[in-house]
Structures are given as C-alpha cells and as structure tokens.
Amino acid sequence: MVANHVLVTLKEGEDPGALLAALGGTDIQLERVSPDAPLFRLHLGAATLEAVPTALDALDEKGSMVQMAEPDFLRQSLLAPNDPKYVDGTLWGLNQISDADIDAPEGWDTRTSAGNLIVAVVDTGIRYTHQDLAANMWRNPNEIAGNGVDDDGNGLVDDVYGCNAYGRNGNPMDDNGHGSHCSGTIGGVGNNGVGVT
Questions:
Q1: Domain spans, the chain
Q2: Secondary structure string (H, E, C) spanning 120-181
Q3: CA-CA distance, 126 to 181, in Å (whole number)?
Q4: How far is CA 47 from CA 74, 112, 142, 164, 188, in A?
Q5: Would you say 62 and 2 are in contact if contact means Cβ atoms under 8 Å apart?
Q6: Is beta strand 5-10 parallel, antiparallel or unpaired with respect to 39-43?
C-alpha cells in the first residue's frame, strides 16, 4: 500500500474543507481524484506505513462526513504475455500508460482461462484456423464438417464454427479481420510466443 496517503470518499454534500478542519492537521491535504465523484486522496504528513492505520482510525471517527476510507493498495500485473503483437505495442488497446485501454493485464491477473465458457462474437466473422484461435473455437456438436449436409437441421450447411449471417451460410470465415481481432482479445491462446494474445 502507499505510505503517504489514503483514499477517502465523502458523503454527498460534505465539504472537503470541513473534513480537513475536523481532522485538525496542518500537514495534511485533500486532492480530488475524480471530477465526477467525491473521491479524494488524503495526503498524510508522515510518509510511513504506520501513518496509514492512524489516518484511517481518525477518518472512522468522522463517520458522519466520510462514506469510505481505505488504503491505496499498489497492484502490479504479474502476468504479461510474450506474444509478439503484445510485446511490440501493436495491441495498444490492451494496456498503455495513458490508461485508455481495457486493462488486460489486470484481467489476466484474475484469470487466463475459462474452459467451459462460451462467448458469441457478432462481428465480421472469425478466422477459426488462426494459430491462436483454433484451440479455443466452439464446435457445433451436431454438425459434421465438410459433408455438405445440414446435419443439425437449422437451415445452415456445415455450420461447424458458427454462421455467416450476412452471407446466410455456415462459414463464418472473417473477410475483414475485426471479428478475429475481437475474438483473439476474448479467447485467443496467449503467452505462447506467437501471434496475438
């Protein structure tokens, strides 16, 4: 956790200056974290880990003004894939310094697999033969590939990996790349040194 401040959310309508006055410290200050929410960093005079619980106790005593007070925990992504497109920054939307991303490393720290989860991607199709997608592709258990027959009776012939709704057929092969890109973000095999994540 960070030693020189704690996070504080004020109750609706509470004045930050009034909280500072109530705390009575001359070496503390509040910094607004979000313009859209009453979330602040309460900077402590002493930058020690021992100062954090003391500050939290003092804030707890001001319960009529404070909705929430907690340490600002440091988190570090422990899992970063070695896939070339991630390493070279091509997939900038997964993680970047400006934080205009989807926080993929934070998600990977939580989970990197979900074997029995099925996700439908409605997009430009999917390159189901891609080295990072093939292993995780859903397969229609009621369709026999390549026999030219609508085995499952749903009106689509050989719809083994889904369908092409625009082309009204059973081949969802991506003709644009965007659907494969989105599918790779969701369920591509990662950390294998090839392809994407």
A1: 5-71, 77-197
A2: CCCCCCCCCCCCCCHHHCCCCCCCCCCCCCCCCCCCCCCCCCCCECCCCECCCCCCCCHHHH
A3: 8
A4: 15, 36, 64, 59, 43
A5: no
A6: antiparallel
How far apart (Å, rounded) are the C-alpha atoms in residues 59 and 67?
A: 10
CA distances from 69 to 42, 60, 139, 175 (A): 9, 8, 49, 51
Q: Which single residue is written with the structure tokens 């499952």?
A: 152
Pick the CATH number of 77-197 from 3.40.50.1240, 3.40.50.200, 3.40.190.10, 3.40.470.10: 3.40.50.200
Q: Is 6 exposed, middle or buried (0-12, 13-18, 19+ CB in 10 A)?
A: buried
pLDDT in 10s for each residue of the chain, 197 residues:
788 889 999 998 999 989 888 888 778 888 998 888 889 999 988 778 888 888 889 888 888 899 999 998 876 656 678 888 888 888 888 888 888 899 888 888 778 888 788 999 999 999 999 999 999 999 999 999 999 999 999 999 999 999 999 999 999 999 999 999 899 989 988 888 877 66
